[in-house]
Design brief:
The protein is mostly helical. It contains ten helices and three strands.
């Protein structure tokens, strides 16, 4: 059970994360511990703990004697992360097929992505979350701890350009269709899906 302190820390983490991904907090922007403590009606301790957690996730960077800033990622860093990610996810795809695991959670994310698109006002933020969850779930289902550790070190959840950049409805539909294809490759146990995943991810390096 979460203590009150942990609950506040989790609330602060979630709020800051959403503000970074929505663009409310810009890359390089300094975050004020005092203002956050006032906003969440708490001491600075849970704010500091939340910021440390977000630093581990790659969302912010804490500079001693200066403060906490929204982390900036260069296009080169994003490109390098995508190159490695492509091969890690291709390996995960192969392991998921080999182990014949239940992919129900991935199917759920596909349906949630579709619901975001078909809503009266399509929900880009929720779409991005489902998009991220789809890929993270495939890594988890591969059942390889070293693979999961390497994937987590890429801090993909912090690279909003990959999952949370503004998309048109047409782009969301195309992305959804590509994820449906990945799912079908898994269901068919078709090894060609490995190459499809690599191409799906590599083409985003310079987007």
């Amino acid at each position: 059970m979460l203590t009150q302190g942990n609950h506040i820390k989790t609330e602060i983490c979630s709020s800051i994360q959403n503000r970074i991904r929505s663009g409310e907090y810009k890359p390089g922007e300094k975050l004020s511990e005092n203002l956050l403590a006032t906003e969440f009606n708490c001491s600075r301790m849970p704010v500091r703990e939340a910021l440390k957690h977000l630093e581990q996730d790659g969302l912010v960077i804490i500079q001693p004697k200066s403060g906490t800033y929204v982390r900036e990622y260069s296009q080169e860093e994003i490109c390098h992360a995508l190159e490695i990610r492509a091969y890690l996810e291709a390996l995960a795809f192969a392991l998921v097929i080999e182990k014949n695991v239940d992919i129900g959670v991935m199917e759920e994310q596909i349906e949630k992505m579709r619901a975001c698109i078909e809503g009266e006002n399509f929900d880009l933020s929720s779409f991005g979350e489902c998009h991220l969850k789809f890929h993270e779930t495939m890594i988890m289902l591969a059942g390889n701890l070293f693979l999961s550790d390497l994937y987590n070190k890429l801090h993909l959840n912090a690279l909003q350009k990959i999952f949370f950049d503004p998309m048109t409805k047409e782009e969301m539909i195309f992305t959804h269709e590509e994820h449906q294809k990945i799912l079908q490759y898994i269901k068919d146990k078709n090894p060609e899906g490995e190459q499809f995943i690599k191409m799906h991810l590599w083409k985003r390096r310079n987007s």
